[in-house]
Amino acid sequence: MFQLKSVTRQFGKKTAVSSVTFDIPQGQMVGVIGRSGAGKSTLLRMINRLVDLSSGSIVYDGAEVSSLRGAALRNWQRDCAMIFQQFNLVPRLDVLTNVLLGRLNHRSTVLSILNMFTREERIMAIGALERLGIEQTALQPAGTLSGGQQQRVAIARALMQQPKVLLADEPIASLDPLNAKIVMDALRDINERDGITVITNLHTLDTARNYCERIIGMAHGRVVFDGQPKDLTAAAVAEIYGADTGIEESMTSTSINIPAAEPQEETASAGLKPLALAGI
Ligand SMILES: Nc1ncnc2c1ncn2[C@@H]1O[C@H](COP(=O)(O)OP(=O)(O)OP(=O)(O)O)[C@@H](O)[C@H]1O
Ligand SMILES: [Mg+2]
User: Fold this and answer.
1) In this structure, which ligand is nearest to the CA of 16?
2) Does residue 102 carry a pLDDT above 70?
3) Which of 41, 47, 220, 222 to mutate to test the pocket of ligand 1 (most atoms within 8 A of CB)?
4) Contact by Cβ (8 Å): 171, 85
């Protein structure tokens, strides 16, 4: 259970997030929407402490996240995985190693420096890639994958952290609609099957409506809507995006007809058994 109380962040004179207060029960799938500059990324980054709060507090399961330091802060950042619009993979490293990097803050510095991963970790990494349907890419350099595949690698890496919370900052903003659907389906599956709280910033209203049980709308750093998709009326949408824009749902939509099955991509390692890929 998350409790945000009067969470505020200023950058100089600019107030990016202004006195945001809400609770999120464990296992909820929450979409955060709003115009560019509304404060969505800053809010997520404060939750995982990539950015410090100017004032207010964030409490998770009774622990004050906003004042964690040292090892406790690193533990929190492990429990609270984050994925980004630009994937943040190491492009020249193979996919499997990128996924294994998600284990780094579970292990000792010495093992990490030696880049040694255990057999169990490798099996876990292959399992995560299989779950995302991209195990056949395990030995390719991550930079050679399509955007949709790279985002799935990033999700697999996040799963290796065995997080309680998954934060996603515009995870589909760089993807075509088919890959956007695959990635959102994966996030939903993680939320539903693993009970992981998912908080995702989204720039498309229809995606938030389709995937999130709760939508938080931000404007000028403040929460101006907090409710279920069915409560998101035209007036609420106008308040979030600004009445002056004459916003229509289609303007924030990625909807197209999505083919039933994803075409199979040819990869260098196609045909190899997943565990063989992991060197097992
Ligand atoms: N490191 C920073 N230094 C100065 N100003 C910042 C910084 N980070 C964010 N801001 C400002 O805070 C405000 C909120 O930015 P934020 O990135 O959180 O918005 P956003 O809703 O994520 O926008 P977008 O949809 O474009 O990603 C903006 O005015 C932005 O310019
Ligand atoms: Mg942003």
Assistant:
1) 1
2) yes
3) 41
4) yes
